[in-house]
Design a protein that fits this description.
about 15% strand; Rossmann fold; binds thiamine diphosphate; alpha/beta
């Protein structure tokens, strides 16, 4: 038991105060010790993939490390998707895996796999090599000795990730000569602590802004906000990207638009484009503070003049097709302002919220999982990120929800008051129906990509003791009322209206 205890103590000293423990014999000593410890918070889950995403959600919530504790074998491998997501979003997710003793390696003995480097370059492999800006994997070979442990006081130290150094010169240059060809900002997902700095910076610059819902500042931007569609085929000379890679189509089109210079300021230091562009690798808020006051640049190409009327056209369309998917998402965006937090799972709902969501009332807290754009583990991440937050709203596509069907197993451990889980059940991966590239495929070929499905999810809601509401039209929203138990809303858009939209 001494090696188990010392490894847990090292994690506590590194600022890890929460653990998600999964069942197994090899890790039973670690689990028993954590259960007996006074101090750390311990969550329990039977399914390691969901557990790792839930732990990632905990990291998102309080910006402190959280560890998943697994047994040996494929249990460790189940954590890979969450580790990858944590890598691209620089989150201190820790995987503590029990392994069989060294002499078992390569033996093919039961539940013995090659665990040591299983996460490749995605995770640091010792506390000494870990800077706190991404995942850490501690793989501990353990004997299966008898377990005895008494209650013990475990002290959790504060967590501090290493500070990155950066140079603001490239940002200064970017905001200086050359802006006469137009400068706009594209704001992707932002960390909560970066939002205020970004908001005031953009106000000072006075430039047009395309902001994703998970930036957390979209609705506060007022007149600076412009719809992405205004720039299709009409790109400015420069784009300043702040935060995570923007979700919309326009960013992808930039790949082919060498005439537009791009500067990204982001935590993971990755350009998000395969073509030439510049990057400042640091926390966005710190870079902006490092710049000091920013001079007004304004709208040098009259983009506001051209872009703003488009909002009016969008609103007219929403009025005329109220039960289309955009119509229902638009109304949902109004109802969701009553929540304490909002999580949007996959690409299409994020794009729809960006384009059609209400633009007046900021949401209290907004989250998404956009590091690797996976549709896996989304519900689990949401539950982790809002485990202690009442009135939490989460919005997901149907395939995204079907991917994480066991996630509600965590509901009894998390805050359920006012919780609203919304699945937009449009019968498969409708994002692919919008890809021009697929327009010439046969029905069968398209079906293999869209994966249409016809399941209704009411019985899933019953299985996990959630309340259930089906919304098929604007009027059905009158019945939407959150209670003490999680409310599951199955939102089924009118397919014909959606097509017309
Ligand atoms: C793990 C994973 N597998 C596959 C994909 C590719 N993918 C992106 S969106 C999508 C469809 C999502 O469908 P749904 O959740 O129903 O949302 P919709 O597009 O209909 O809003 C798929 C399969 C992915 N991003 N992640």
């Amino acid at each position: 038991m001494t090696s188990e205890k010392s490894i847990i103590e090292q994690l506590l000293q590194s600022g890890c105060g929460e653990f998600v423990v999964c069942g197994g014999a090899r890790n039973a000593g670690l689990v028993a010790l954590l259960e007996a410890a006074k101090g750390p918070k311990v969550w329990k889950h039977f399914e390691e993939r969901g557990a790792a995403f839930f732990a990632l959600g905990r990291v998102k919530d309080h910006a402190q490390p959280c560890a998943v504790v697994t047994t040996s074998g494929t249990a460790v491998a189940e954590c890979l998707p969450a580790v990858i997501e944590a890598f691209y979003t620089c989150k201190p997710l820790i995987i503590l895996s029990a392994d069989r003793p060294a002499e078992f390696r390569g033996s093919g003995a039961p539940q013995t796999i090659e665990q040591e480097e299983i996460f490749g370059n995605y995770a640091a492999r010792s506390l000494d090599d870990w800077d706190g800006h991404g995942p850490l994997h501690l793989n501990v070979p353990l004997e299966e000795s008898e377990i005895t442990c008494d209650p013990w006081d475990a002290h959790v130290e504060g967590f501090l990730a290493e500070r990155r150094s950066f140079d603001v010169r490239s940002l200064l240059d970017f905001l200086d000569n050359g802006v006469f060809r137009g400068l706009i900002a594209m704001v992707g997902g932002l960390e909560p602590e970066d939002r205020e700095d970004v908001f005031y910076f953009l106000k000072d610059l006075g430039i047009p802004v395309i902001a994703d819902i998970n930036s957390g500042i979209r609705e506060a931007l007022g007149d600076l906000l412009v719809p992405e569609i205004a720039f299709k085929g009409n790109l400015p000379g420069r784009i300043l990207r702040l935060g995570e890679v923007p979700v919309g189509r326009l960013w992808r089109d930039l790949e082919e638009s060498a005439g537009t210079e791009v500067l990204s300021i982001c935590r993971n230091g990755l350009p998000g484009l395969a073509r030439e562009s510049k990057v400042i690798h640091a926390e966005v808020g710190r870079v902006i503070r490092g710049l000091g006051a920013a001079d007004q640049i304004g709208d040098v190409r009259d983009d506001f003049l051209k872009a703003r009327p488009l909002f009016g056209l969008i609103d007219e369309k929403l009025e005329s097709l109220p039960d289309s998917e955009p119509g229902l998402v638009s109304l949902l965006s109004v109802y969701a302002t009553t929540g304490e937090s909002l999580f949007i799972g996959n690409s299409l709902p994020i794009r729809e919220w960006n384009d059609f969501g209400q633009r007046e009332t900021p949401y209290a807290r907004v989250f998404a999982n956009r590091g690797a754009n996976g549709i896996d583990g989304q519900l689990s991440t949401w539950l982790g990120a809002t485990a202690e937050t009442p009135d939490s709203w989460g919005v997901f596509g149907d395939l995204t929800a079907l991917y994480d069907l066991a996630a509600p197993a965590m509901l009894p451990q998390v805050e359920q008051k006012g919780r609203v889980l919304i699945v937009i059940n449009n019968g498969g991966g409708q994002i692919f129906e919008k890809l021009p590239r697929l327009a010439n495929l046969t029905e069968e070929q398209r079906a293999a990509i869209v994966q249409p499905q016809e399941v209704r999810l009411q019985s899933w809601a019953e299985m996990w003791s959630m309340d259930y509401l089906k919304i098929e039209s604007r009027e059905d929203f009158d019945k939407l009322e959150a209670g003490d138990k999680t409310l599951f809303v199955e939102l089924i858009p009118d397919a014909v209206q959606s097509d017309n939209f």
